[in-house]
Amino acid sequence: MTQINKLKIFNDPIYGFITIPNALIYDLIQHPYFQRLRRISQMGLSYLVYPGANHTRFHHALGCMHLMQKAVDVLRFKGVEISIEEENALYIAILLHDIGHGPFSHAMEKSIVEDVHHEAISLLFMNKLNHEFNGQLSLAIQVFKGEYNRKFMLQLISSQLDMDRMDYLKRDSFYSGVAEGNVNSERLIQMMNVVDDYLVIEEKGIYSVEKFLMSRRLMYWQAYLHKTSLVAELILMKILKRAKELTLKGIELPCSDPLLYFMQHKVTIDTFDETTLDLFAQLDDFDIIGALKSWQKNDDFILSSLSKMIVNRDLLKIKLTTDKVTLEDLQPMQERFAAQNSISIADTNYFIFKGKIKNQAYSKEADPIRILKKDSTIEDVIESSDQLNLKSLSKLVTKYYLCFPKQLL
Fold it and tell me: Are 141 and 135 contacting, i.e. CB atoms less than 8 angstroms apart?
C-alpha cells in the first residue's frame, strides 16, 4: 500500500514556503469542509475596486497557521512552556477559525442566514470534525472558546493583536495593492512574550504595534469600507433578501439546491442542525455568482435590476457624509424613482436607502495590547505610546451613507 506523504509544503507569495506540521493538520486541510475555503473570497466583492483582490480564505487560514508556528517557536525560545498538545491545539484553532464563513459572508449573515455569526458556524464545524477525528480537536475547541486555563493561547487566536489580524492585513494589502496596510508581522512576533499568562509585546516593539494599528485603520477606510466595496455588498444583501422574499411567496428562482434551502427556511443558531451544516458546507461564492447571472433575466424588476448591477459592475451611487441622513432626504428620490419605474414606495427601499459605518482601530474597552516595559511593568499600548495619533485611533469614527440609482442625480 502506498503511503501518502502528509508533511507537504505550500508556496505562499507572502511568506514563501509554509510547512504542514503533522499528519492531523494535513488531514484537516484535505477535508472537504476546509477545501471549500478555496472557493470563498477573502475580501468579498472588493475585487470590483481592486482587481487583484481575488485571494481566498484558504490562503488566509494557511497564512495564520504559518504565523502561529513562528509565534510558538519564539515563545518557546523565550522560555514559555508550550506542550506538543497545546502547540497542536493552537495550529488547529487558528487553521479553522474562519471555516464558518459563507460566501460573501457579511452579506449572507444579514440576509439569508439571519443573525448566525460565522464564529458560531466555525464552532459547529469544529465540533463535527472533532467527532470525525475521534476527539483530536477537543483541546483546540477549548482554546477557541476561551475555556482553556492559559489566557495567552486565546490571545494568539483572537485579540487586538492576533495571528488572524496580522495575516489578513499583510495579505489583503499585498493582493489589493493598498501598500498602507502592510504590517511587519515578523517583527511583531519576534517581540512577543508571556507574562503572568498574558501575551505582551516587549517595549522595543512598540513602533511596530503603532504601525500595525495605523495600518488597520487605513485598510478599513481604503479597502474594507471603501465606498464601492460597501455599496456592492449592500446591493448583494438586498438581492438575497429579495430572492428570499420571492421564494417564500412560492416563486421558483433558479439556483443551487443548498442556496435554495437557505432561501426557503429561516435559519437561526438554534435550528442549525447537522443537515443544515452539511448544506452550508456546500455553499460557496460560485452558488451566489451563478444565481446572480440567472436572476438578471428574472421577471421581477427588483431582482433583475439589482443582479445586473453586480454582474456588470454598474452599481448604485453612494455618498458618504459625517452628517446623519434622514428619511426626509430619501422621500423625494423615492417618489421620483417609484413614478419612473411603476413600483411602490415600499419597493424603492431596495434601491434608495441609508445607513452608517464605523471604524475603530483600537478599542480601550476590549482586552488591551500590553507593552512590557524595560522595568518589567506592563502598560496598555495607548499609555506607553508617545504618538498622539495613537490615542485618536481608539476613537470610534462613524460615517453615514446614502445609496440611490445614478439616474436620480
Answer: no
Residues forming a β-bridge with 17? 11
Please provide residue 128's backbone torsions phi and psi, each rounded to the nearest 5 degrees.
-65, -45
All 3 cell numbers of residue 193? 512574550
d(CA 409, CA 403): 11
CA distances from residue 396 to 106, 110, 229, 359 in whole angstroms, order as listed = 21, 22, 21, 6
292-351 tens-digit pLDDT: 999 999 999 999 999 999 999 999 999 999 999 888 889 999 999 999 999 999 999 999
Angle between helices 57-77 and 163-176 (to 10 degrees): 130
Coil/strand/helix, residue 356:
strand
DSSP H helical ranges for 133-254 = 138-144, 151-157, 163-176, 185-190, 206-219, 227-248
Q: How far apart are CA 392 and CA 300, in angstroms?
A: 47
**Residue 165 corresponds to which cell in the numbers above?**
489580524
CB atoms near residue 407 (< 10 Å): 10
- Can you read off the three cell numbers belonging to residue 80? 514559555
Q: How far apart are CA 33 and CA 28, in angstroms?
A: 8
With H, G, I as helix, E, B as strand and everything else as coil, classify residue 320.
strand
Q: Is 274 exposed, middle or buried (0-12, 13-18, 19+ CB in 10 A)?
A: exposed
| Residue for grid cell 469600507 | 225
Burial 191-206 (b: 16+ CB within 10 A, else e): bbbbeeebbbbbeebb
Residue type, 23: A
pTM: 0.93
Confidence of residue 198 (pLDDT cuts 50, 70, 90): very high
Q: Look up residue 318 and give its three cell numbers.
A: 453612494
Q: Is 56 helix (H, G, I), strand (E, B) or coil?
A: strand
- Cα separation, 165 vs 216, whole angstroms: 8
Q: Is the separation of the CB atoms in 97 and 120 below 8 Å?
A: no
User: Using alpha carbons only, how large is the chain's radius of gyration in Å?
Assistant: 23
Q: Which amino acid is at 292?
A: L
Q: Which residue has the cell 511568506?
A: 15
Query: Rounded distance, CA 191 to CA 186, Å?
Result: 9
Q: For residues 227 and 320, is the Cβ–Cβ distance under 8 A?
A: yes
Q: Measured between alpha carbons, how far apart are the two ends of the chain, in Å?
A: 69
* DSSP designation for 293: H
CA angle 39, 215, 76 (to 5 degrees): 80
